[in-house]
Amino acid sequence: QVQLVESGGGLVQAGGSLRLSCAASGRTFSISATGWFRQAPGKEREVVAAISWSSSSTYYKDSVKGRFTIHRDNAKNTVYLQMNSLKPEDTAIYYCAASPAYGSTTLYTGENQYRYWGQGTQVTVSS
Q1: Which H, E and C letters describe the chain, residue by residue?
Q2: Which of 93, 88, 107 minimizes the C-alpha distance to 34?
Q3: Ramachandran quadrant class, 53 (left: phi over 0; alpha: psi -120 to 50; beta: rest)
Q4: Segment 88-98, tens digit of pLDDT
Q5: What is the pLDDT of residues 60-93, one digit of tens each?
Q6: pLDDT of res. 27
Q7: What is the average per-residue pLDDT within 40-64?
Q8: Both ends of the chain: CA-CA distance in Å?
């Protein structure tokens, strides 16, 4: 069992930065692929970034490439999403998700591939 708690959301002006953190409890987190998703009002939840448990593989949604960076510290059981050059269209609730993965390069981009979810943190970018 893995429990996930996100933090770091807030209100920021366009062009600003935020760093989201996802703190995990549970023995399997260090071998879990992890992803960040977001859901804007009236829209479906979408994957933003994902990372394998070894950090050897990463994925980014096209619209955040070059602006967002996902990284993890397995010693601290934490995954981060550094968000720079934020835009109003980045406004959403951001969720952390994790699921055990057998391969060190395995990552998941599908919502239904993740077993554990956090409660979400609101990110609001004003223009």
Answers
A1: CCEEEEECCEEEECCCCEEEEEEEECCCHHHEEEEEEEECCCCCCEEEEEECCCCCCEEECHHHCCCEEEEEEHHHCEEEEEECCCCHHHCEEEEEEEEECCCCCCCCCCHHHCCEECCCEEEEEEC
A2: 107
A3: alpha
A4: 999 999 999 99
A5: 999 999 999 999 999 999 999 999 999 999 999 9
A6: 83
A7: 97
A8: 40
30, burial (CB in 10 Å: exposed 0-12, middle 13-18, buried 19+)? middle
Distance CA 5, CA 122 (A): 13
pLDDT at 1 > cutoff 90: no
For residues 39 and 100, give the distance between their C-alpha atoms in angstroms, rounded to a whole number. 23
- CA pair distance 25, 27, nearest whole angstrom: 7
- With 0-12 / 13-18 / 19 or more C-beta atoms within 10 angstroms meaning exposed / middle / buried, residue 42 is exposed
Mean pLDDT of 10-27: 96
